[in-house]
Design brief:
The chain is built from eight helices and seven strands, in the order E-H-H-H-E-H-E-H-E-E-E-H-H-E-H. It has 185 residues and is an alpha/beta fold. The structure holds adenosine monophosphate.
Length: 185
């Protein structure tokens, strides 16, 4: 499946200094949501370009009920995955997150021998500008206020799948496959 991360699309638009990037940057730096019209316009434009035969995973979208409502007018969603994790563990994981500028892989600081070098490709690792503690805490507030209502929204539609994510990656991945009814890998 093709992964479509709205956050990645915004970060790439910011790097390229496109009008979309310029419109989104202030919100992202503050840990606020980019306005619905901007996000929906971007996803609407992007989806028809998806050619992966297995379909796609929307990562970080929708994040408001308005986005979910409008998404349902141009796409059919089979399942919604909610990764459950306590806020204090989220703060720790995001503070420790490092991203490779070359291959895009995500690493966790305690697993790295060198905090600046990607163990996969040797590329330079960076910390996202919004992964500082103050912005993370604000993003969580925004999440509880604007995104969490989507759990009930998709529960009512019977397509939510919840994954207890308080475990290392292989275990969380096994739980994810399980809730999606996929065979063990
Ligand atoms: P992420 O990479 O998913 O953590 O997203 C990083 C930032 O991009 C978020 O904090 C928002 O500012 C913005 N963003 C990404 N996806 C959305 C969305 N669906 N709705 C509004 N803002 C978004």
């Amino acid at each position: 499946m093709q992964q479509i991360s709205t956050g990645d699309l915004f970060r790439s638009a910011i790097r390229d200094k496109t009008p979309l990037g310029l419109a989104a940057q202030g919100y992202i730096d503050q840990g606020e949501l980019v306005p619905d019209d901007v996000v929906i316009g971007m996803v609407r434009e992007y989806l028809p370009r998806v050619t992966a035969p297995g379909g796609y995973i929307l990562d970080g979208f929708p994040r408001t009920v308005e986005q979910a409502e409008r998404l349902s007018s141009f796409a059919t969603i089979d399942a919604v995955i909610c990764f459950d994790l306590a806020d204090q563990v989220i703060v720790k994981r995001l503070s420790e997150r490092r991203v490779c500028t070359q291959c895009g892989r995500i690493h966790s600081l305690p697993d790295l021998k060198d905090a600046n070098v990607c163990p996969h490709c040797g590329g330079k690792l960076i910390q996202r500008a919004d992964d500082n503690e103050a912005t993370i805490l604000h993003r969580l507030e925004v999440y509880h206020e604007q995104t969490e209502p989507l759990i009930a929204y998709y529960q009512r539609r019977g397509i939510i799948r919840r994954v207890n994510s308080d475990a290392p990656i292989p275990e969380t991945y096994a739980r994810l496959r399980n809730v999606l009814g996929l065979a063990e890998s």
